[in-house]
């Protein structure tokens, strides 16, 4: 991908980003990326264009890549996580197929790193209940929760996410738009810890892509848990079936207008991302062809773009021991980092 396909978000707004942010981010001295995906299902096109492609690109530019598989966060919105270890392996499969280099990346499961989780306690003391209550992403996740009540774990979601990011002192976080409010909490926690005790943590910056919120087939955010996703590993036929069912509108003249025509524009953007083009140009080409032609165009673009990734994924799936080894090695590395940070935190707080 080209460096121009991403935007950076700071404590101001993503719209104020620089024109060539990946290069700018690297040049600005960022050195460690942390990002992750809940082990609630396989990765989808939203992950790929939202963050995964940027992770691979930044790793290839020499930044250190940490990927958390936050298995405890899989029980924020459901009573039990469904086969979290199996899903974690599937995520590793998706990462490797997408081009993440496991030799240089640290891919780890959150529950296997005790010192990381211990950071939650001091961090909880740095935010107010009022701040947690007004987090819009927590509200949205509660609205889609499978539980009738809100657990303490759901309520404190942004705080454990802060622990995930700060334990390794990551300074750049490639995320989708839904994660921006969470990242603000992380930045607040870092700032307050540094002010109250001693300067230990960077205030990490978000990195948004050109597709910070890819929509699913039902018109809502494409999500692993909402039954509206096209997965990276889907077959060409599954992709065609799913995209045929995508929500559009009755106007046969296809135009790119994300605000008024979200479904149509989403398919145009998806096509444009796959073909490295401008969505307006894709729309002009389809003209009065209607939603059916748009869907066929998007399907061909997705299937063409993901053919090599899907082939690599199928090859890698043949040997699951490799996937487990990647996680074991990643957990060992993450534990060493977390132990060091916890020692520093305890010294800063003056605990015994
Ligand atoms: P779940 O439904 O289980 O919450 P999810 O699809 O929302 O799954 P997450 O594991 O919660 O995926 O998110 C992992 C990362 O991918 C986050 O940085 C998130 O912002 C990003 N992401 C998720 N969905 C999209 C999307 N539709 N468009 C762009 N980025 C996305
Ligand atoms: Mg999510």
UniProtKB/TrEMBL annotation:
MF term (GO), any: tryptophan-tRNA ligase activity
Any Pfam family hit: tRNA-synt_1b
Membrane-traversing stretches: none
Keywords for the protein's UniProt record, in alphabetical order: Aminoacyl-tRNA synthetase, ATP-binding, Ligase, Nucleotide-binding, Protein biosynthesis
UniProt similarity note: Belongs to the class-I aminoacyl-tRNA synthetase family.
NCBIfam families: trpS (TIGR00233)
Protein name: Tryptophan--tRNA ligase
Organism listed in the record: Kitasatospora phosalacinea
Gene transcribed to yield this protein: trpS
């Amino acid at each position: 991908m080209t460096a121009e396909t991403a935007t950076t978000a700071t404590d101001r707004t993503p719209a104020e980003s620089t024109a060539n942010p990946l290069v700018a981010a690297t040049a600005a001295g960022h050195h460690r990326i942390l990002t992750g995906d809940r082990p609630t299902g396989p990765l989808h096109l939203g992950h790929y264009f939202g963050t995964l492609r940027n992770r691979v690109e930044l790793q290839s530019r020499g930044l250190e890549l940490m990927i958390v598989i936050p298995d405890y966060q899989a029980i924020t919105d459901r009573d039990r996580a469904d086969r979290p270890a199996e899903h974690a392996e599937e995520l590793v499969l998706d990462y490797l197929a997408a081009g993440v280099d496991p030799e240089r990346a640290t891919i780890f499961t959150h529950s296997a790193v005790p010192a990381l989780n211990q950071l939650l306690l001091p961090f909880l003391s740095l935010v107010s209940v009022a701040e947690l209550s007004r987090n819009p992403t927590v509200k949205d996740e509660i609205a889609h929760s499978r539980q009738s009540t809100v657990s303490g774990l759901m309520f404190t979601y942004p705080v454990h996410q802060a622990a995930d990011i700060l334990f390794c002192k990551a300074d750049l976080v490639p995320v989708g738009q839904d994660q921006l409010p969470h990242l603000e909490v992380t930045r607040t926690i870092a700032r307050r810890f540094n002010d109250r005790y001693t300067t230990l943590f960077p205030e990490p910056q978000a990195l948004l892509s050109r597709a910070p919120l890819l929509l699913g087939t039902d018109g809502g955010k494409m999500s692993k848990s909402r039954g509206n996703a096209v997965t990276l590993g889907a077959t060409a036929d599954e992709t065609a079936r799913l995209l045929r069912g995508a929500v559009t509108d009755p106007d046969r003249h296809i135009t790119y207008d994300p605000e008024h025509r979200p479904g149509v524009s989403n398919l145009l953007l998806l096509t444009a991302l796959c073909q490295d083009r401008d969505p307006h140009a894709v729309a002009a080409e389809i003209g009065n062809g209607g939603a059916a032609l748009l869907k066929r165009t998007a399907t061909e673009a997705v299937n063409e773009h993901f053919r090599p990734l899907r082939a690599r994924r199928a090859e890698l799936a043949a040997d699951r021991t490799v996937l487990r080894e990647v996680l074991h090695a990643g957990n060992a590395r993450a534990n060493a980092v977390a132990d060091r940070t916890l020692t520093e935190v305890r010294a800063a707080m003056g605990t015994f």
